[in-house]
Specification:
Blueprint (H helix, E strand, L loop, with lengths): L2 E2 L39 E4 L5 E12 L8 E13 L6 H12 L8 H26 L10 E11 L3 E11 L6 E10 L8 H4 L5 H16 L23 E3 L3 E6 L12 E6 H4 L8 H10 L2
Parallel strand pairs: 4-5
Antiparallel strand pairs: 1-5, 2-3, 3-4, 5-6, 6-7, 8-9, 9-10
Helix pairs in contact: 1-2
């Protein structure tokens, strides 16, 4: 049976602490290097069926100009969910290490806690740089307190052989509007290995997958309901697979973020390709995984 999780990416005033994912012990002492304002309170978010247990790390702060409490401040928020218990037959340490690498892809963190600390520190330093730039460049028409940056990694779904995480990035750094970006990553539960697009599909899949995506976009744009229509920023013939995807009960969903193929106003676009069409392109190694996803949803 599939487990669908709503792990509430950014919940106001909720601060929860994850056990050190590699050791299963309280890790609150390790957070001092980031900020005393981080609130840690060990809590299991959910005791899921089949022994999946998810905990979270959360860090919220306001970084003020010159660290002066009387001056304007930019909001930053970092959130990360991680499994701390999983069923037999799954490789929990490998899953945790893969999630850590997804969240902090610039370094090679050994644990989710290390990845979280790295990102929290990076966001704080970035905010301090923005504060200095804001003060130097002039601020007559821009309120620094409107600036914000947030990142959150949540567990999007869990199947018997697959766990999917989504990482959402949100920011406002001046201008007409903010921005939002979401990235999905899929992980085998048995091995803990990441499954990128070029591994999931057979060699030379692009020439067959791209037309499937284009056909689905054309179908949507032909529907009577104009709310389904996509206002393309590129020629239909130029659209390729996004490399950003997740699995649901009917097929593989390819995700396109703001400005990738459509205007800002249309937000994140999802294009679904049914398993019945896409299975011939799947690498033989992963056909059992697709079958298990379909079975889990039955």
């Amino acid at each position: 049976m599939k487990i669908k999780l709503a792990l509430f990416l950014f919940i106001a005033l909720l601060f929860v602490n994850c056990k050190d994912a590699s050791k299963g012990v309280n890790s609150s002492q390790a957070v001092d290097a980031i900020s005393d304002s981080t609130a840690w309170a060990q809590k299991e978010l959910a005791q899921l069926s089949n022994s999946w247990v998810i905990d979270t790390l959360s860090y919220d702060d306001i970084v003020r100009v010159n660290d002066d409490p009387k001056k304007q401040g930019m909001s930053i928020s970092v959130f990360m969910a991680c499994p701390i218990s999983s069923p037999k037959g799954t490789d929990l340490p490998a899953i945790q290490k893969t999630i850590a690498g997804i969240f902090d892809h610039e370094n090679k963190p050994a644990t989710p806690k290390e990845a979280f600390d790295n990102i929290a520190e990076k966001y704080r330093k970035d905010a301090q740089n923005y504060a200095r730039d804001w003060e130097v460049e002039g601020n007559e028409f821009i309120n620094f307190s409107n600036f914000e940056q947030s990142v959150g990694l949540s567990i999007a779904s869990i199947f018997s052989q697959l766990i999917t995480v989504s990482t959402g990035y949100s920011s406002y750094l001046g201008g007409a509007h903010g921005s939002f970006f979401v990235r999905y990553d899929n992980i085998e539960t048995k091995s803990g290995k990441h499954i990128p697009e070029e591994v999931l599909f057979k060699k030379d899949y692009e020439s067959k997958l791209a037309p499937m995506i284009r056909d689905e976009i054309a179908r949507r744009n032909s529907l009577p309901n104009e709310e389904e229509h996509l206002s393309l920023l590129v020629e239909l013939s130029e659209i390729q697979s996004s490399g950003n995807f997740y699995f649901d009960k009917t097929g593989i969903i390819f995700v396109y973020n703001q400005y990738e193929i459509t205007p800002y106003v249309q937000g994140v676009v999802e294009i679904s390709i049914p398993y019945s069409k896409i299975k011939p392109l799947i690498n033989d190694t992963y056909l059992p995984l697709i079958t298990s996803v379909e079975k889990d949803n039955a």
